[in-house]
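=== RUN LOG ===
request id: a7f3
mode: sequence -> structure
chains: 1
length: 74
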Amino acid sequence: MKRLQLTALLERDGDGYTSLCPELDVASQGTTVEDATANLREAVELFLESASHAEIESRYHPEIIASRFEASYA
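=== RESULT ===
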């Protein structure tokens, strides 16, 4: 069984959270951070189970760098 180390990016969205796995461009949502992360994991696992090897290889981008920065505005 192959295993991938993936990233979950979460953003507050109204009363819940949206979640994104940028390495595979798979998204989900949930009412809490934990729910959004669990739902994203499920969505990714379903994608990996149903996609062909070629599709996984074409969508998988492992070089994700998450960084925060500050910007000014008037």
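=== NOTES ===
The beta strands are 9-13, 16-21, 26-30.
The helical segments are 33-50, 53-59.
=== END ===
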